[in-house]
Amino acid sequence: MASTAASPAFCGIPKASTSAATARASIPATRFFAKNPLRGLGFSAAAAEPLLSHLVATKLRSFGSSSAKPVRGVASMAKKSVGDLTAADLKGKKVFVRADLNVPLDDNQNITDDTRIRAAVPTIKHLISNGAKVILSSHLGRPKGVTPKYSLAPLVPRLSDLLGIQVVKADDCIGPEVEKLVASLPEGGVLLLENVRFYKEEEKNEPEFAKKLASLADLFVNDAFGTAHRAHASTEGVTKFLKPSVAGFLLQKELDYLVGAVSSPKRPFAAIVGGSKVSSKIGVIESLLEKCDILLLGGGMIFTFYKAQGLSVGSSLVEADKLELATSLLEKAKAKGVVPASAIPDGWMGLDIGPDSVKTFSDALETTKTVIWNGPMGVFEFDKFAVGTEAIANKLAELSGKGVTTIIGGGDSVAAVEKNGVASVMSHISTGGGASLELLEGKELPGVLALDEATPVAVKMDKAPHSSQPPRSKARPTFGMEVSRFRARISADCGPGTFLGFDPTKLQETQPIHFVSWLIALDFSGSTY
Ligand SMILES: Nc1ncnc2c1ncn2[C@@H]1O[C@H](COP(=O)(O)OP(=O)(O)OP(=O)(O)O)[C@@H](O)[C@H]1O
Ligand SMILES: O=C(O)[C@H](O)COP(=O)(O)O
């Protein structure tokens, strides 16, 4: 992370006068509370693309997703598991395993985070130790056609290390060469197919392509939780041609935590939702509101709620087209009693929760038994605005140590927890970005739906199980947000639509970033905050 003092100023289209903003060192703390439980909010769905990358520019891809409509519950997703298959079912069998090995690579093709590879290992090890021949498939990135930089080749050494065998790599994912490699695969061997997205038929879920993939194997194991929200040929299509089609251990574990823990949590059950935009999280908020005892909201999305209350939000991030939606949610909260928030002065922009909110949130979490967290509390990519996110990460780590079930739902929250060095103590860190959001919204995942039904299978939990059902606590859902102090300056010297931003992975470098409305008004020059 860059030293903010040395960072260049950000520039943007002026939204407000700069003088008032720069003259102030702080703004009043603000917060609002709903006094009573919120009930009766239905599911709605929203798509988002939580990202694993810290690049500021790429985060903005997640914006602008729209809401859809009610969906069926996901708790019914009891699927046949790879653990149900006996050694006799597996020995000598060719097993098509779809994993999500979509890991970040640096410019030199080095893996910068191998979490997803490590997460795929238990299923593969189980298969090879039972004498299966594993045909491993994944996508990497979003290539348009064959694109060398998206080859899965860089993953082979790490996979081989983790599995303790030499993984063979194919240059394609279908065709005669691949068939030859499959034919020569020994029992207990692993063949890694090339990126399935090199074929456009993959994302189009074309049956002929799915059939070709399926023809390589005898049965199918889907362990690609991170891609389970995509109905693609290698996740959904192949199930039409391979029986049995079962869930891998990772997929099971993710479902167990993200569906199981949320639908039948140990209570009090708290949900913390943050992130940049209401549009990407409204489905999650509505869904969790139905289930949780305490709801803590932070991050940029809160300003749309503020604005909907008629409060001044300065230059903070607001989604004008979501004001009505925010109003309807707030109406329900207001009916129960909401303490109004203070206004944010013109020219100022809320970028993190402040110390009072950290305390309020921490106090509220103190007695919880289950906590799910989705979305950072502030612009944590910058150290100055990472304080609230770090404090929440530390609080969750502390609670984990006391046996509280702590679940971190994908994307930026996971990055924040990892940055803070507390990932390993959490009960569950999801490997899915978009997939985990969709689950939390109550959506069904096509990659899971397509698998064979089974009687529910108990999943061995790594950490605190969540089977017991203490009586519902008297804890109340709480909206809480306080805007931290920040310094801001708005410059008029940038053209419309382009702002200067900076890439935190390349310290000191500036680059043009488009559509970066929330970078408006940031100015670290000379700031001591
Ligand atoms: N007050 C704020 N103003 C503007 N942006 C914010 C603010 N607070 C947080 N953010 C930004 O929100 C982004 C994350 O929001 P997003 O909705 O993409 O979450 P996410 O990727 O879905 O997170 P997760 O995957 O953990 O749910 C981060 O880049 C962070 O800088
Ligand atoms: O990184 C992810 O969320 C998954 O690998 C899915 O990737 P996608 O959003 O490109 O389908």
Topology overview:
Layout (H helix, E strand, L loop, with lengths): L17 H6 L21 E2 L9 H4 L7 E2 L18 H4 L3 E5 L16 H15 L3 E5 L18 H8 L4 E2 L6 H8 L6 E3 L7 H5 L2 H8 L4 E4 L22 E3 L1 H15 L5 E5 L4 H14 L2 E4 L4 H7 L14 H13 L19 H11 L4 E5 L12 H15 L3 E4 L3 H8 L8 E2 L4 H7 L5 H4 L48 E5 L7 E5 L15
Parallel strand pairs: 3-4, 3-7, 4-6, 5-6, 7-8, 9-10, 9-11, 11-12, 12-13
Antiparallel strand pairs: 1-2, 14-15
Helix pairs in contact: 4-5, 11-12, 13-14
Enzyme class: transferase
Catalytic activity: (2R)-3-phosphoglycerate + ATP = (2R)-3-phospho-glyceroyl phosphate + ADP
InterPro entries: Phosphoglycerate_kinase (IPR001576), Phosphoglycerate_kinase_CS (IPR015911), Phosphoglycerate_kinase_N (IPR015824), Phosphoglycerate_kinase_sf (IPR036043)
Structural summary, described in words:
By secondary structure, the chain is of the alpha/beta class. The chain contains 17 helices and 15 strands. The chain has helices at residues 18-23, 56-59, 87-90, 115-129, 156-163, 176-183, 200-204, 207-214, 249-263, 278-291, 302-308, 323-335, 355-365, 387-401, 412-419, 434-440, 446-449; strands at 45-46, 67-68, 94-98, 133-137, 168-169, 190-192, 219-222, 245-247, 269-273, 294-297, 370-374, 405-408, 428-429, 498-502, 510-514. The strands form four sheets. It has a six-stranded parallel beta sheet with strand order 5-6-4-3-7-8. Strand 5 (168-169), helix 6 (176-183) and strand 6 (190-192) form a beta-alpha-beta unit. Helix 4 crosses helix 5 (156-163), helix 11 packs across helix 12 (323-335) and helix 13 (355-365) runs parallel beside helix 14 (387-401). The radius of gyration is 24 Å and the shape is elongated. The chain starts with 17 loop residues before the first helix and ends in a 15-residue tail after the last strand. The site of adenosine-5'-triphosphate (ATP) has 28 residues, from helix 15. Adenosine-5'-triphosphate is lined by residues 48, 50-51, 59, 62, 275-277, 280, 299-300, 317, 350-351, 374-376, 378-381, 409-413, 433, 518. Belongs to the phosphoglycerate kinase family.
